[in-house]
Amino acid sequence: MPGFESFGTVNIDALSAGPFTPDGSKTNVTSIGFLFEFDGKRIVFTGDADDGRLVASLQPLAAAEGGRLRIDALKVAHHGSDHNLSTDLLDLLDCKRYLISTSGARHSHPNETAIARILKHGGPGKELVFNYRDRATRWDVEALKSNWLRVRGPSSFVNPSQIWVYLDESRFGGVDRLRELPTTSVAFVHWFSGIEASARWGPGHDDGVILVATRLEYPDRIFVRERLFCQFTHPKAGEWIACPFLND
Predict the structure, then answer these.
(1) Which alpha helices (DSSP H) does the chain contain, by range?
(2) Are 11 and 77 in contact (CB under 8 A)?
(3) Which carries the bigger pLDDT value, residue 99 or residue 135?
(4) What does the domain layout of the chain look like in residue ranges?
(5) Is the pLDDT of residue 238 over 50?
(6) Nearest Cα to 121, choosing from 172, 85, 174, 152?
(7) For the whole model, what pTM was predicted?
(8) β-strand 41-45 against 188-192: which pairing, if any?
(9) What is the Cα–Cα distance from 129 to 119, expressed in whole angstroms?
(10) In this model, does residue 64 exceed pLDDT 90?
(11) Buried b / exposed e across 67-103, counting CB within 10 Å, b at 16+?
C-alpha cells in the first residue's frame, strides 16, 4: 500500500485464499483483450480488462482443449491488480510466463494478492516477468523461493548446466550479464531450448541458450516472431526481469 513498507515473507497461502472482488471501474471494462497467435506461440493481452469478461471469453477455448488453454504468456490485467485476476481465470490457463507491466508509481501495482494467486494457482512451472526491477524485488528473495521454487538439478556434478547467453553467436556469459547490454543495441532476442542449443553449439547447453542479436540481417530465418516480442518487452524505462517459480 502507498506509504507503507512490507516486512517479512509473504504468506502465499493466506493471500491467495482471500476473497475476490471484481474491478468496478467503468473505464477498465471497456479495455480490449485479445489472443495473439503466431507460428505456434500464443500470448493473451488483457489491457485493463475485467476478469469476468476474460473468463467468459476464454472458457470456450479452454473447453476445446480439455479444460485449460495452452498459452506461452499472459499479460496480467491492469498491471497486476487483485481485482482483475481471479483463480477462475488462472484455472482456465496452462501458462508458463506471466508478464507484469508497471512501475508501481500510481497504485503500487502489482498487488501482492494477485501475485500470490499466480504462485498458488498459475500452474506447476512458471516465470514472473517484470519490466521494473523494484517491482520484482519483493518476490526475488530466498525465504520465499525456498517454498515456491524448485531449481533444476545440474546435468552432472563435474560440468553443471546453466542457461547461457550468446551475443551474435559468441558466448557472452550467464543470464546475469544481460544487464550489461544496452537495449539500444539489441535487434532481437531468441530462446533456444536445451535440445536446440545442444544441436547448435554442442554439449554443455542442456538448460538452453538466450541468443541476443545486434543485427536484423541474420543467417537464420527463424527469428521473425522474436522481433515483435522483443519490441513488446522493450519499455522506455526499465527492463524485463524474469523470476522463475515452480511449485513443489
Answers:
(1) 12-16, 51-64, 87-90, 112-121, 133-137, 142-148, 194-201, 224-232
(2) no
(3) 99
(4) 12-149, 164-235
(5) no
(6) 85
(7) 0.58
(8) unpaired
(9) 13
(10) yes
(11) ebbebbbbbbbbbbbbbbbbbebbebbbbbbbbbbbe
| DSSP helix/strand/coil, 94 | strand
Model confidence over 65-95: pLDDT tens digits? 999 999 999 999 988 888 889 999 999 999 9
Q: Is 165 helix (H, G, I), strand (E, B) or coil?
A: strand
Residue 230 and residue 209: Cα distance in Å, rounded? 16
CB 71 within 8 A of CB 33: no
Angstrom distance (rounded) from CA 46 to CA 86: 13
- Report the C-alpha gap between 231 and 36 in whole angstroms: 15
The separation between CA 129 and the C-alpha centre of its own chain, rounded to angstroms, equals: 4
Q: What is the pLDDT of residue 161?
A: 53
All cell numbers assigned to 204: 554443455
Residues 6+ apart with CB under 8 A from 151: none
Residue 217 has pLDDT above 70, yes or no: no
Query: In this structure, what C-alpha cell is assigned to residue 41?
Result: 506461440
Say if residue 232's pLDDT is above 80: no
